[in-house]
Task: structure prediction
Amino acid sequence: MNISYKTLLEKLEIEIRKAKVANGEQEIKGHLYAVKALAELALEGEQKQKEVSVLSMPENVLPERPQTIPVTNQERIKMADGANGDSLFDF
Result:
């Protein structure tokens, strides 16, 4: 999603106007936090576009194939107490 700077600046102006006519400190702070969020959105969007352009550069990388390890000895280990049954619940 691409939001233009013009749109963000208009929203910033609206929030600043609302902050100027606000009655209480909490209301002013609310509008100031909105201004902060909009400013961060504009700056973050700029940073994200740089990251996307770097990430979108294709690389000549072959897909990884899972490495298989052959199992040669499938003999069961004999325990002294005889607890080596076929079930997970054989203790």
Notes: The two ends are 57 Å apart (CA to CA). The chain has a mean pLDDT of 76. The CA atoms of residues 23 and 78 lie 81 Å apart. The helical segments are 5-20, 25-55.
